[in-house]
Amino acid sequence: MKVTVDFEECLKDSPRFRAALEEVEGDVTELELKLDKLVKLCIAMIDTGKAFCTANKQFMNGIRDLAQYSCKDPLVETNLMKFSDTLQEMINYHNILFDQIQRSIKTQLQTFVKEDIRKFKDAKKQFEKVSEEKENALVKNAQVQRNKQHEVEEATNILTATRKCFRHIALDYVLQINVLQSKRRAEILKSMLSFMYAHLAFFHQGYDLFSELEPYMKELGAQLDQLAVDAAKEKRDMEQKHSTIQQKAALQDYSSDDAKLEYNVDAANGIVMEGYLFKRASNAFKTWNRRWFSIQNNQLVYQKKFKDNPTVVVEDLRLCTVKHCEDIERRFCFEVVSPTKSCMLQADSEKLRQAWIKAVQTSIATAYREKGDESEKQEKKSSPSTGSLESGSETKEKLLKGESALQRVQCIAGNAACCDCGLADPRWASINLGITLCIECSGIHRSLGVHFSKVRSLTLDSWEPELLKLMCELGNDVINRIYEAKLEKVGVKKPQSGSQRQEKEAYIRAKYVERKFVEKQAASVPLPEPGTKVLPPSEEEKRHSGPEKSLLAREQGAASQKAVAVSSDEARRESLFCPDELDSLFSYFDTSSKLRSIRSSDSGIQPSTDDSREHLASTISANSLYEPEGDKQESPVFCDYKQPSPGLQLYQAAFEKNLPHMAEALAHGAEVNWVNMEENKATPLIQAVRGGSLVTCEFLLQNGANVNIRDMKGRGPLHHATVLGHTGQVCLFLKRGANQHATDEDGKDPLSIAVEAANADIVTLLRLARMNEEMRESEGLYGQPGDEIYQDIFRDFSQMASNNPEKLNRFQQSDSQKS
């Protein structure tokens, strides 16, 4: 509503002027209220619109997620992505609209209210003030008496000045009123026009966008009509197939699921065979769980659920054997045995069991063939050198690689050909025997069990430095002199590389398991190895004969060996969870009485006291090694009238660091954990520690020595190695699962002994091992080797002990020092 205030009336200050001002002031107040309300509504509309855009954007993102989920269906994915892009454009148009509304309504009207109306209010305040002053001046002027000339003049002057100021401010106030009345129309209509143009642009953009999308939507509608027809047809086909299979199932007997068992070694997906089997858990309860097993990529794996990562039962099928199990109550069981563990499985029927066993055996043969061809190709490309042993300056990684192991081991006498059949360039080795083998003989060795032979690849496996030195200390020539000493006498012909597998298998079993070709101790007086220290008669008698009662003590010692042998299985289980105690693992899994009888017969324990006396009365030296006739040399050898037992031979040779004599003692039936009752119940492993040889300790451990057997003083090999300051041996025993918490008769464990001796290296190793053990227990990682840093540190110590032992000789002690 337009209100005009006349400037002339302003000067008169008439009642008409005062009425016009009152009307204008009320109008402006109401205008301000309306504009404030409109601005608030605009802000609420913008906030609501933005919330709508946010929800719309979330809905659009949901469409895109659905499109990505439907990536296997191009039709659904393409259309959903197209629609989501269109909705995104609409969201952008909405945002533009709200920005324009904010500029046109909120910003412009708020500016008009804050600036123009505020100026009107300020002018009103000044006008009201000067009006009041004018009224006061008029009243004062009227009240002055005429006889007071001075007050008359003063009142007249004040009234004149006040009127002059009133006219000036009143004219400004009327000007501000008229400008406001004129401007408010333009501001309001301008903002609303901008608001309407924003909507016009928004709907034009939306119309153009959907006009472009319309043909696409029509095409999709036609496709959906065809999809509905196709879906109806597929439904009829599936119903027909369902009916057919139901009829077939009613006619066929599904009492056994093995009607159509098939396995394909050359399957395109690498899976030879798969199916459900029951697996016996390795926990104390021996529970059976049904799992989905498969043979793939030369591995036996199983899954609980399809999405789970497969659990590997056998890492390499070449390293395992499979056999029936008839000595347990459950039916259809078979066992897969690897060097580190045994897995008991159960099929649903006899046919299924036979099929699985055949599949595993076939896969083993295939794995041998494939890996053999692969390694030959790699070695042809590598062209290895035939020079001498690699120097100690080579890097740790190179020493642990298979090719380096192959070069070093094949340099030993006789190792260039297979120990059992003579095939050239063998690529496999038996680490506890110290011989090289061809791929076929290595498979036969593996079937003997790890208590007879532990097989490794010279090209595919990693080799610890102490194990490499062990291989270099023995060799095919040395072992064949022992295990083939009577080969010509018994008239057995050694198989050749082209012989049948059955012939090789029978020969190898006779050679290593039955030991038919090992020369009996009383048959000859063998010569010691070159460099072997032979004790003079007085010292030998002093050490082994003893006083008169020594004969009775030895008889008691021989009788106690039976108890040691019987309890050896339980004692050796203390280190079951050590990764390299493969012999202990085998004895843990194989509980048959046949194995125990074999181990007892091969342990070197005589069945009766009379037999023990016969051995004590023999006159053959303990340091013996079978050699060919042409290699025999004349040298003074002390021959006692009492022949030491094989266990005592092993005991002596362990101290003398003579690996060939130790191998000979084991071939004669020495128990690797033999106890010397005359020397504080010390074992060959403890003697090896006293001798100071890391390789001798490794040889005994590889042949099943228990790292935790203690002597009469309660000290095990780890105690003795700590007392003597043999850092390399401490590292080796910790890796093999030695119990560092065991205390001797003085209540000291190895760590306290090392701390008292101020041996920084051994203290470091023991504390690292203890910390790693605590970490594994806290994290529930029982039976696992530990973190990579721990393994790297121990690997470095092993490298140093084998290649640079002088760096670890913190304590210079004589070999004769007693622990």
Automatic annotation (TrEMBL):
Comp. bias intervals (Basic and acidic residues): 369-382
Subcellular location: Cell membrane; Endosome membrane
Activity regulation description: GAP activity stimulated by phosphatidylinositol 4,5-bisphosphate (PIP2) and phosphatidic acid.
InterPro entries, A to Z: ACAP1/2/3-like, AH/BAR_dom_sf, Ankyrin_rpt, Ankyrin_rpt-contain_sf, ARFGAP/RecO, ArfGAP_dom, ArfGAP_dom_sf, BAR_dom
GO molecular function list: GTPase activator activity; zinc ion binding
Transmembrane residue ranges: none
Keywords: ANK repeat, Cell membrane, Coiled coil, Endosome, GTPase activation, Membrane, Metal-binding, Repeat, Zinc, Zinc-finger
Annotated GO biological process: actin filament-based process
Domain PH: 270-365
Primary subcellular site in the record, as a coarse category: membrane
Domain of life: Eukaryota
Region annotated Disordered, chain positions: 369-394, 527-565
CDD domains: BAR_ACAP2 (cd07638), PH_ACAP (cd13250)
Bias (Low complexity) ranges: 383-392
Membrane-protein topology: Peripheral membrane protein
Pfam families tied to this protein: Ank_2, ArfGap, BAR_3, PH
Presence of keyword Disulfide bond: no
GO terms for cellular component: endosome membrane; plasma membrane; ruffle
Residue ranges of every copy of the Arf-GAP domain listed in the record: 403-525
ANK repeat start-end pairs: 680-712, 713-745
Listed PANTHER family: ARF-GAP WITH COILED-COIL, ANK REPEAT AND PH DOMAIN-CONTAINING PROTEIN 2, CENTAURIN/ARF
Domain remarks: The BAR domain mediates homodimerization, it can neither bind membrane nor impart curvature, but instead requires the neighboring PH domain to achieve these functions. PH domain binds phospholipids including phosphatidic acid, phosphatidylinositol 3-phosphate, phosphatidylinositol 3,5-bisphosphate (PIP2) and phosphatidylinositol 3,4,5-trisphosphate (PIP3). May mediate protein binding to PIP2 or PIP3 containing membranes.
Described purpose of this protein according to its UniProt entry: GTPase-activating protein for the ADP ribosylation factor family.
Name the record gives this protein: Arf-GAP with coiled-coil, ANK repeat and PH domain-containing protein
Species this protein is from: Taeniopygia guttata (Zebra finch)
